[in-house]
């Protein structure tokens, strides 16, 4: 199998560092440094949140702007993807950074349960976020927590609310949402291929399931996501020392399955994004 595999690194989670892994980057400068190392290890997309001074998630466009500036300087050509998820704000403030024109932004097109709350994505907010992405030429990454989200994304693609080639990420292993189930995973792929034949797909496995999803994706010709946002361990007993270590682990899997790791140029070509001078 020779199709290049795009590795996305999700650099920081939502838990305070003291309750997570000391390696999780919190400040903008830490995030830039961690992403640069991950970029050099093979990641071609960075999925990013920003934090307040007390380490809580933030929707501050100024911090996103400083992060984008640092990433463009130190990781030239890397695809910058900002999160519009519900952890960093409510309502339209979740999309306040889209006007900064990152290459991509995450888009959840439906609601689902999280461990202790409902992750709300009402139709009017989904439509507004998609509209902002169209206005600012930002490519959505569909975060599919449920089969219905794949169907909704395909419908939005057909009617023009999400233009161009879809990029769909299956999110599996969130407590109270879709578990890591191989039959479901295979059906997700089948559904994407049926509803949007030209789409690209990837997956994120949460916690202990990250490596499992990395292997499923890479072995079946998809793309994959890794990083300290989703998982803080290299194995059951060892904290991951960095985002770069998790990227290297995914890159090693690519070698095992004879998949080249996509360069940033190849990743942009696969996703239909414009090239940028390195």
From TrEMBL:
Protein species of origin: Roseibium aggregatum (strain ATCC 25650 / DSM 13394 / JCM 20685 / NBRC 16684 / NCIMB 2208 / IAM 12614 / B1) (Stappia aggregata)
One Pfam family cited in the UniProt record for this chain: BKACE
Protein name: 3-keto-5-aminohexanoate cleavage protein
Keywords: Metal-binding, Transferase, Zinc
Named cofactor requirement(s): Zn(2+)
Molecular function as annotated in GO: 3-keto-5-aminohexanoate cleavage activity; metal ion binding
């Amino acid at each position: 199998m020779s199709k290049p595999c795009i590795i996305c690194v999700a650099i920081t989670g939502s838990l305070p560092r003291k309750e997570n892994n000391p390696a999780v980057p919190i400040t903008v400068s830490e995030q830039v440094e961690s992403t640069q190392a991950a970029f050099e290890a093979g990641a071609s997309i960075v999925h990013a949140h920003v934090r307040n001074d007390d380490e809580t998630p933030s929707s501050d466009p100024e911090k996103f702007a400083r992060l984008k500036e640092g990433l463009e300087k130190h990781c030239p050509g890397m695809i910058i993807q900002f999160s519009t998820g519900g952890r960093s704000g409510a309502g339209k403030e979740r999309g306040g950074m889209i006007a900064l024109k990152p290459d991509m932004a995450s888009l959840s097109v439906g609601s689902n349960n999280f461990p202790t709350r409902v992750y709300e994505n009402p139709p009017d907010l989904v439509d507004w976020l998609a509209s902002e992405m169209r206005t600012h030429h930002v490519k959505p990454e569909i975060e599919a927590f449920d089969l219905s989200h794949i169907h909704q994304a395909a419908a939005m693609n057909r009617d023009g609310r999400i233009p161009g080639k879809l990029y769909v990420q299956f999110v599996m292993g969130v407590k109270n949402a879709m578990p890591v189930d191989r039959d479901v995973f295979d059906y997700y792929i089948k559904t994407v291929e049926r509803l949007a034949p030209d789409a690209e797909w990837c997956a994120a496995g949460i916690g202990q399931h990250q490596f499992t999803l990395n292997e499923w994706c890479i072995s079946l010709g998809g793309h994959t996501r890794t990083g300290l946002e989703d998982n803080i361990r290299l194995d059951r007993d060892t904290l991951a020392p960095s985002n770069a270590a998790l990227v290297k682990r995914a890159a090693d899997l690519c070698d095992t399955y004879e998949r080249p790791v996509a360069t940033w140029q190849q990743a942009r070509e696969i996703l239909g994004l414009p090239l940028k001078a390195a």
